[in-house]
Amino acid sequence: MRSYRLKIVRRTTHTENIFGLDFKYSGITPWPGQFFQVRVDEGVELFLNRPISVASYKRGHLLLVVKIVGRGTRTLSMKKAGDYLTLFGPFGRRFRPAHRKSLIIAGGIGIAPLHFLAEYMARRNIDFDVLYGVRNKDEFIFRSDLKRMASRVTFVAERGYREKETVVTRIRRMDLNDFSVGYACGPREMLMALQELKLPITTYAFCEDFMGCGCGLCLGCAIMHGGVYRRICIDGPVLSLGDIDFEV
Amino acid sequence: MTARFSALEILTLKCRIFDIEFKNPVFLASGTFEYGLIYRNVTNKAGAICTKGITARPRGGNPPPRIFETACGLINSVGLENPGVDVFCKETLPRMRSLKTRIFVNVAGFTVGEFVEIVGSIGPRVDGFELNVSCPNVDMGGVSFGRDPDVCAEVVARVRAVTELPLIVKLTANFCDPLVIARRCMEAGADGISLINTLHAMAFDLRKKEVLIQGGLSGPAIKPFALYCVHRLKELEVPIIGVGGIMSGADAYEFLLAGASAVEIGSAILRDPYSPLRIIKELKRYTG
Fold first, then answer.
1. Average pLDDT for consecutive 10-residue bins of chain B (288 residues)?
2. Does A52 map to a domain?
3. What are the domain boundaries of chain B?
4. Buried (b) or exposed (e) across B134-165, using 16+ Cβ within 10 A?
5. Within 13 Å, how many C-alpha atoms sit on residue A60's CB side?
6. Is the minimum CB–CB distance between B247 and chain A shorter than 8 Å?
7. CB B47 within 8 A of CB B15
């Protein structure tokens, strides 16, 4: 981990409440699943940094894609190209995806870390499909990118298409025999439903939580996994889905 | 009794408190640097580390959410997650021996006997103990030890009997006067007082209309109050470790002016694990 003072090269708007910050970055190379702690307030009012996963890293550019969910992310959304931000990281256990046919399962903003995983797998010629669901069909991001990298991409939405579908309803009808491993990121309800389906493939969840330090010091981001509390920030954020106890 | 800096010591920040030497008066507060093993380069430059609170039995800690940001600070409800004193002694403590700083074990008992048991098990392998008297006292219906001067004094006296190492009592300022408690603790044999621990706090989930988190408030939000508490204890002329929302060398110096011999850095670490190094550097500018 290191701390960085990075200049925003570009700010992109993806949907009404999803934006991207593109930094020129030559620091420690991030791995899939890793994230940065982004300082939103150089004053102390918004005290804690916000954990934001890496959405893309290539050719010296680091892209963070953020959904506005509260005051911190709203403050971040007001940053413009040319502004500087303090970042700490990369944090999180380095996750090495398997060289096997994989299925990416994304719900909403959960696509952000999975897009980075997709980039990583595409670069290593790992074959994968993507199943990507959102609430409203105008909320998709990285559409063309995903189509380019994946063998097959399935977009589903609860509103906007003739067929009202979610990731969970679609995966029930899918033949998963082709796949050996799945990577899921999305709302807690989605992860819980996926877990309940007991998918026949090894599935990893990219987890999130409010975080204090992001680096294992404060024990703030606990998740019950395999009967013990683990820290999402250093034991995860990528954890086997089947072992997570969401009820705790 | 209060530590004073000599001319040379001011330049190097070296200080003597409880008759032991510290390389500087900037300590790492309990619960915010775990056992000092993750960022050793920071630990090794700090005056001392206070470990995560150690209990007699292993504790899994509280269910999430454990952290919630509030204006200028945060509420935490980690629930003293730790492996318990046996595993701590067997696995963690040996790894801590290579740290180049003073080690104070934060001791969290739920009965008077547990305090004695933990300190006794650890023995003389560390530089001192910080007694966390903010836990609910199981023998007294769950009221915090720290609110009752008699019980605090009993804890200190009983622990004093089993160790000669420096004993710091980390006081709460929740619903009590720390001056009264501190006086009794010192009379019972404590070597110093650290204060303040987090303040009782809570936040609600407005959508569900229920409590979101209940725990301890820390960060710059509590700094002025912490400073007041430290200053209130100044008249005792005993070593005081000031804790509460210190973010900069200026904040730390303010605590020294209020009567503290040293300070502990807590929440600032969550924002930047390297902040203690910056605070040490900034503090030199004030004291130099």
1. 46 87 96 95 96 96 94 95 96 96 96 96 96 80 83 96 97 92 97 96 95 95 97 96 97 97 97 95 87
2. yes
3. 7-61+79-199+219-287
4. bbebeeeeeebbbbbbebbbbbbbbbbeebeb
5. 4
6. yes
7. yes
Measured CA to CA, the distance from residue B80 to residue A75 in angstroms comes to 33
ipTM over 0.90: yes
**Annotation says B89 is catalytic:** no
Residue corresponding to tokens 């929302």 = B245
A-proximal residues of B, 164-183, CB under 8 Å:
none
- Residue A26 dihedral angles phi and psi, to the nearest 5°: -130, 25
Domain count within chain A = 2
Whether residue A188 is contained in a domain is answered as yes
Say yes or no for a CB contact (<8 Å) between A219 and B274.
no
Q: What is the pTM of this model?
A: 0.93
Domain residue limits at A193: 102-206
Q: Does residue A140 share a domain with residue A59?
A: no
Chain A contact present for B269, CB below 8 A: yes
CB contact (8 A) between residue A44 and residue B74 = no
Look at residue A216 and tell me if it is in a domain: no
% of chain A exceeding 70 in pLDDT: 100
Name the residue facing B68 among A1, A39, A210 (closest C-beta): A210
Placement of tokens 């790894």 in the chain: B95
pLDDT digits (tens, 9 = 90+) for A172-200: 999 999 999 999 999 999 999 999 999 99
**CATH number of the domain to which A64 belongs:** 2.40.30.10
Q: What is the pLDDT of residue B101?
A: 97
Indicate if A80 and A114 belong to the same structural domain: no
What fold, for B7-61+79-199+219-287?
TIM Barrel (3.20.20)
Looking at the domain assignment, is residue A7 inside a domain?
yes
The verdict on A27 and A85 lying in the same domain is yes
A236 CB neighbours in chain B (<8 A) are none
Nearest chain B Cα distance for residue A227, angstroms: 10
Look at phi and psi of residue B17 and say left if phi exceeds 0, alpha if psi is from -120 to 50, else beta.
Answer: beta
How many angstroms away from the CA of A190 is the closest CA of chain B? 18
pLDDT at position A59 is 87
